[in-house]
Structures are given as structure tokens and as C-alpha cells.
């Protein structure tokens, strides 16, 4: 996805407030061997881009003053109650250096699993995204978790997820939490029929 930005020279709270009144979002691009650069971006274009899942987990093409750069979205500050972006941070990337990034999980074939088809189980998602480490060129937009073989009484843990080549999950030693939980509804016992009136 593409982001169009321009450098900004005015700094401070007052300057940022004037930018926002003009329909712009103040931000910064940092990383690499280049000095951090203060930027401004059109608010409406950015607002709509932020509604796209891949904008948060993909390598972005930034056009900064007409020059192309590869960046990652690193932070967004929102207004407490308005649909208004207050500030945004991007990080420059080096194709030869690994990055860590949160990537969404896409759960598939849930309705085909034995747990759902045979037991009527309800599957809850403990995680909707995970942090991964990889080279920028290997960064996936999402990671698929196939539930088609999930059986009642079983679960799936983070280390069991099939990952794209060159991608590893960021976990502490010995850590392997469950990605989903499986709940089988308890059948309610049918009430005994009432005795006919007049009989004991």
C-alpha cells in the first residue's frame, strides 16, 4: 500500500493543532541511518487506509516529498472520542535486517471441524494476532490457522501454527499458549412431565 507524505518544518503543539485544522496529520518517520523526519499526511486518506487490515501489518510504500521509501506503521494516536487521528509513527526498514511485527491470524474451516460438526462446540479465539520476526521481504499480511482437523477436547498452541518460510513467532523460552479455546455446550435435562391434575 502507498502513503503520500511531505516533510514539515513547524514543530510544537500549536503547529500540530494548525495542521489538524487544515485536514493534515502530523507524524514522524524514523529508523535506518537517516535522521528522524517530521511529516504531514492528508487525514482523510490516512483514516481510510487505517481501516484496511493489511495497512497495519505490511511493508508500505511511502512517497516522501516525491522520493520512495519502505516503511512500517509503528504507532497511531487517536482522539479519545472523535474519529480523528492525532499523530502517526512510521519506521524505515532495511531489507537486510530482521524486523518484529504483529501479524493478524485468520481462522479458517472452523465449521468443517469435528469439534463443531459432531459436538456442536463453540470455538473462541484467544489471540487475533501474533508477533513474528523475519526479514521485510518475508513479512506475511496474515497467518492462516486451519481448524478443519480440530477435535473435541483438543486445542491448538502457538508453536503448532504453520508459518511461512523465514518467519518465526516471538515467544519466551517454554512459552506456548493456546490460540483457541473449545467449549461444548452442556445439554439441559428435559423437565419431568407434570402429573395429571387430581392424581398423586
Question: In summary, what is this structure?
Answer:
The chain is mainly β and 200 residues long. 10% of the residues lie in helices and 37% in strands.
Write up what this structure looks like.
Belongs to the bacterial ribosomal protein bL25 family. CTC subfamily. Residues 5-90 form the Large ribosomal subunit protein bL25 L25 domain. Pfam families: Ribosomal_L25p (PF01386), Ribosomal_TL5_C (PF14693). Part of the 50S ribosomal subunit; part of the 5S rRNA/L5/L18/L25 subcomplex. Contacts the 5S rRNA. Binds to the 5S rRNA independently of L5 and L18. The protein has 200 residues and is mostly beta strands. The protein folds into two domains: 2-92, Ribosomal Protein L25, Chain P; 99-183, RNA Polymerase Alpha Subunit, Chain A, domain 2, CATH 2.170.120. 10% of the residues lie in helices and 37% in strands. The protein has three helices and twelve strands, in the order βαββαββββαβββββ. The strands form three sheets. It has a six-stranded mixed barrel with strand order 1-3-2-6-5-4. Strands 10-7-9-11 form a four-stranded mixed sheet, with no helix packed on it. It has a two-stranded antiparallel sheet with strand order 8-12. Strand 4 (60-64) and strand 5 (67-78) form a beta hairpin. The radius of gyration is 25 Å and the shape is elongated. The mean pLDDT is 90.
Amino acid at each position: 500500500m502507498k502513503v503520500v507524505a511531505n516533510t514539515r518544518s513547524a514543530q510544537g503543539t500549536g503547529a500540530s493543532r494548525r495542521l489538524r485544522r487544515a485536514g493534515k496529520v502530523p507524524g514522524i518517520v524514523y529508523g535506518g541511518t537517516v535522521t528522524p523526519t517530521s511529516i504531514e499526511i492528508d487525514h482523510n486518506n490516512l483514516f481510510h487506509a487505517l481501516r484496511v487490515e493489511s495497512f497495519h501489518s505490511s511493508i508500505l510504500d511511502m512517497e516522501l516529498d516525491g522520493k520512495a521509501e519502505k516503511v512500517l506503521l509503528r504507532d497511531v494516536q487517536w482522539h479519545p472520542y472523535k474519529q480523528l487521528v492525532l499523530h502517526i509513527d512510521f519506521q524505515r526498514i532495511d531489507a537486510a535486517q530482521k524486523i518484529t511485527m504483529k501479524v493478524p491470524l485468520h481462522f479458517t474451516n472452523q465449521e468443517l471441524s469435528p469439534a463443531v460438526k459432531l459436538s456442536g462446540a463453540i470455538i473462541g479465539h484467544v489471540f487475533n494476532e501474533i508477533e513474528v520476526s523475519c526479514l521485510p521481504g518475508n513479512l506475511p499480511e496474515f497467518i492462516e490457522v486451519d481448524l478443519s482437523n480440530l477435535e473435541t477436547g483438543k486445542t491448538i498452541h502457538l508453536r503448532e501454527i504453520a508459518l511461512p518460510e523465514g518467519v518465526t513467532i516471538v515467544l519466551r523460552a517454554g512459552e506456548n499458549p493456546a490460540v483457541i479455546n473449545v467449549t461444548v455446550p452442556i445439554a439441559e435435562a428435559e423437565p419431568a412431565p407434570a402429573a395429571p391434575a387430581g392424581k398423586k
